[in-house]
């Protein structure tokens, strides 16, 4: 197998593990305003940004949201909540390579942009009449803040112990 194929298979394996962590981690969710806030998903978004890049992160967020919905442990709001944050933090890490900015982009991307994108999903795809256009911003922000902080702490620990070096080769 060539070096490129080996690298692609490694990325796919990491993506599969991160997707599984997001799905299993969704059992630690808190229902708020028709959404199920899952901080582990946001931690996974940051890990995906650092380890794989923005496009992989969006794919992982989509797959985890789809699996959670198919299993009945998620809601349609998982799609905008996780995918927008994955895009924002993935692009931020790609541009800056700074973990603090990446975690901030995850929190703001999910909390603000994902929260706003959730309104039409709730209204038109789920038939819910949310109280306002910004109703999902606070619960999404709380969820993503917890996940972003957790990701920051874990990635710093992994960085100091050089675990990331072996994964990112």
Keywords:
about 170 residues; mainly alpha; two-stranded antiparallel ribbon; 7 helices; about 75% helix; globular
Notes on the protein architecture:
It contains 7 helices and 2 strands. The protein has a two-stranded antiparallel ribbon with strand order 1-2. The radius of gyration is 16 Å and the shape is globular. The protein has 169 residues and is mainly α. The mean pLDDT is 91.
| Count of individual beta strands | 2
Q: Based on CA inertia axes, which overall geometry fits?
A: globular
Please report which band the strand proportion falls in: under 5%, 5-15%, 15-25%, 25-35%, 35-45% or over 45%: under 5%
What is the H-and-E element order? HEEHHHHHH
The computed structural class is mainly alpha
Report the span from N to C terminus: 17 Å
Low-confidence stretches: none
Rg calculated over all Cα atoms: 16 Å
Largest sheet, described in full?
2 strands, antiparallel
Helix content: over 70%
Describe the strand arrangement of the main beta sheet, using strand numbers.
Answer: 1-2
Mean of residue pLDDT?
91
Count of alpha/pi helices? 7
